[in-house]
Amino acid sequence: MASVHESLYFNPMMTNGVVHANVFGIKDWVTPYKISVLALLYEMTTSKPIALQERRRLNKLILPLQQGPDLTLDQFLKTVEECCPQTAYAVKLRLHEMADGELKDMEYFFATLPTPFSAIDSEAYKTSVVGLFMRHMLLAYNKLSFSQVYKLYKALQQYYHSHYSQPGDVQVGLPALAADDSDMDLTSTEDNVGERMEKEELDTAPLHESELSRGPLSQKQAEYFLARQAYLLKNDENKALKPSALQDELNNMLKFNPDFAEAHYLSYLNSMRVQDIFISTHSLLHYFDRLILSGSEGKSNGDEGYGRSLRYAALNLAALHCRFGHYQQADLALQEAIRIAQESNDHVCLQHCLSWLYTLEQMKGSDSSVLTEDSVKMAAHFCLPYLVSLGIQSLVQQGAVQGKTAHELMDALKDTDILHWKHSLSELIDISLAQTTSIWRMYGKSTMAQQQAQLLLNMNSLEQVNFGVQQNNTEAFAVALCHLAELHAEQGLYGAVSEVLKHLKEQFPPHTQHAKLWMLCDLKIQFDRAMNDGKYHLAEPHVTAIAALNKTEGLYRKAQVLKALNRTTEAYSILQRLQLYCEKTKYTEMIIRVMLVTAELHWESSGFATALPLLLQALALARQHHLQALASETILHLAFTQLMLGVPEQALGVLHEAMEPILAHGAVMDKGRALLLAARCQMAMAGTRSNGQKHAALGLAVQSLGEAAAYFSMLDCKERLRDVHYLQARLHHTLGQTPQRNKCAMLFRLLDQELQAPGAAVAILSFIQIL
Fold first, then answer.
1. Where is this region: Disordered (predicted)?
2. 549 CB neighbour count, 10 Å cutoff
C-alpha cells in the first residue's frame, strides 16, 4: 500500500476527490500564510531526515493547509508543532529570517525553492499536489510588480510580528494581494495587476481565531470549506461547526459571492439541523435558482440541464415539506416533480419521486405497500440498488406492523444485505442492522436485539473516512445505542445505562437532528424507574417532556400516572381516546398496552370478570402480530385475573406458558412479577391440599418468593419488596420457621416505615399492585 508520503508527492491520483476539483486551478491569492506553507514544504524537503511517523503526520496535514482558509501564524505553528516540533521550529526560524531581514531575504527564499525545473532530485514532481502548489506560487510570485512584492514583504512582516504582539495590542489584519480571483489570472498583464493593486488599502481589522477569513475566500478555499462541512454534517455532525457559527461563515461567503450555489445548499442543510423552515426553504430555492442562472447544468446538457434542475428542485422541496410534516405542500411539490420528469422522460428522477410518494403515504398513515412494491420492481429494472434496498426495508417495516413472522422479515433483510455488500452501500448496511435490532426488540427477543446492536457498533465502515471522522453519529448508531440503553435498564444495570447515555449526549448534542432519540429514551427510562420505585411525584414531570417528543407515549404514560394516583376516571378517559387514535393509525403495540392498563383499571373496582374479555382480545392481538413480550405480559394479567376469580390451578397453568420466555428474554421487573404471581398461586392451591402436600406447596412458594425478592432488589423496588417480605413472614409462620419469620417481619416493618404506608392496607395492596 502506498504511504501518505508517496500519495502526496508521487501519485496525485491517490488523493481525495475534492482535491482534484481544486488543485489544478491557478486562481489563488499570494498571502503571507501561503509563504508560511511554502516554508513548511521547503523545510520538509531540505532539512535533516524526519522520523517516519512525524513525516506521515505532516504529509496528511499538507492538503488541509493548502486548500483551507488562511490561518494566523499562531494557529499555523501550533498545528505544525503537533505533528513535528522540530519542523515547526525550523519554519519559525525561516520566517524570522525573512520578516526581520530585508526584502532580498524573501527574494532569496523564492529563488532557492526546490522546483521541478531547478532540482532533478526534488520530491516535488510537477504532477504531484506539492509540485503543482509550488509551481503555482512561483508563477504567481514572478507575475508581481516591484510595488506588489514590497507590499507582500510588508504584509509578511505584519503577519509575523502580530504573532508576538501583546494581548492588549491591536493586531493588524493581513492584506490579500488581490481584490478578486481574476487578479491572479496568469493571462493578465503586469500593468493591469499593478493598477488594481494601487487601488487597494491594507485591511486593519482585528483578526479573530474563530473566523475562517476576514475577506472573501478563493474559489479553492471556499469549495474545500463547503466540502468539509457537508461531509461532517453527513457523517459526524458533532465535529462540524455549530449551526450559528456555520451560518455566519456562509453569510460572509455569500456576501462576496451571492451566486455561489453550493453555499446556499450548505445553508439549507445547516438550517435543517435546527428545524428552521424559513431559512431552509429560502436557501433551497436560492440554490436551484443560482444553479439554473449560472448555466452550470446547461453548459453540458443544454435545455436538458435546465429541466433537470427544475425537477430535482421540486423533488427536494417535497422532501423538505415531508421533513416538517407539511403533507399537502409536499404532495403538490411531488406531483410537480413527477410531471416535469415525465415530460423529460427521466426514469431515475421518477423512481426517486415514487420512493418519496410511498414515504409520504406512510407518513400520512395510509397503506403504501402496493406503491412500495412497484417502486422496488421499477428500481430493480433501472439498476438502482440504493432505491431497491430502501424499498425492501420499507416493506419489512410495514410487514412487522402488519404481523408478518420473523423469518419472513429476516429473509427479506438478508436479500437487502446481499445488495449492500455487493455494491458497498455502507450506510444501508448500518440501517439494516439497526432495523433488525428494532424488529427483534418488538418481537420480545432481547438477546437477539442486543447481539445485532453490538454487531453494528463494532462493525468497521466500508466508506473512506476523511477529516478524522468516525462513522458513529448516524441515525442507525443512535437507534442501536438507545436500544442498548433500554435493554440494560430492563436488567437493572443503571450504571451501564448512564455510560451509554453519556456517550449518546457527547456524540449527539442537543442541537443535532438525532438528539430527540436519546432524549426520549432517557426520559422513558427515568419514568419507568420512578414508577417502579413508587415515586409518582418524580414520574409526573417526565410526562410533559415525553409528550413534547412523542405525543402518543406522553398520553400513555400520563394515564399510568393517573392510575397510580387513583384518578381512575381521568385515566380511563385518556386511555379510550388513545385506543381510538392507535386503532386509526394501526399502532398495534400501543393498542395492547392500552388494553392492559384498562384491565388494571377494572381491577381497581374489583371488575375482574369485566377485564377478562379485554385481556383475551389483547392476547389474540399480540399472538397475531407475534409480539412475544406483550403476549407474555398479557398472560401474567390473565393469570392474576384467574387467581382473583378463584381458579388458582388454571392461573398457574397459564402462567407456566409465559414463564420460559419471560425468564429468557424478559425484563427483571417482569421476572420478579411472574415469580411473585407463581408464589401466590401456589399458596392458594396449598389451602385445598393435605398437610404433606400443603407443606411441599408452601415450600415451593417460599422458594419463588426468594427469587422474586432477588429480582426486585436489583431494581430497588421497595413497594414490591415490602409485599414479598409480608408474604414470606406469613409463610414462615405457617411452616413454623420462627427465626426466618422474624427476619422477614423485621424487613417488612422497616420498608413499611420508610414508605410511610398504613400497615393494614398492605394485604390488599399486595394483591391489587402485583402487576
1. 181-213
2. 15
Over residues 470-498, the mean pLDDT reads 88
Q: Which of 78-82, 206-210, 246-250 has the lowest mean pLDDT?
A: 206-210
pLDDT (average), residues 430-450: 91
Q: In one letter, which amino acid is 537?
A: H
Count of CB atoms within 10 A of residue 284's CB?
A: 22
4: exposed, middle or buried (C-beta count within 10 Å: 0-12, 13-18, 19+)?
A: middle
d(CA 472, CA 476) in angstroms, rounded, equals 9
End-to-end CA distance of the chain: 62
B/e letters for 5-17, b = 16+ CB within 10 Å, e = fewer, are: bebbbbebeeebe
DSSP-derived letter for residue 180 is: S
> From CA 281, how far away is CA 272, in angstroms rounded?
9
- Cα separation of 263 and 275, whole Å? 18
> Do residues 74 and 163 lie in contact, with contact meaning Cβ atoms separated by under 8 Å?
yes
Q: Which three cell numbers stand for residue 597?
A: 392498563
CA distance 433 to 510: 25
Spell out the residues 6+ positions from residue 680 whose beta carbon is closer than 8 angstroms to its own.
Answer: 643, 648, 701, 727, 767, 770
Task: Collect all residues with Cβ–Cβ distance below 8 Å to 460 and sequence separation of at least 6.
Answer: none
DSSP string, 102-157: -HHHHHHHHHTS--TTT-TT-S--TTSHHHHHHHHHHHHHHT--HHHHHHHHHHHH
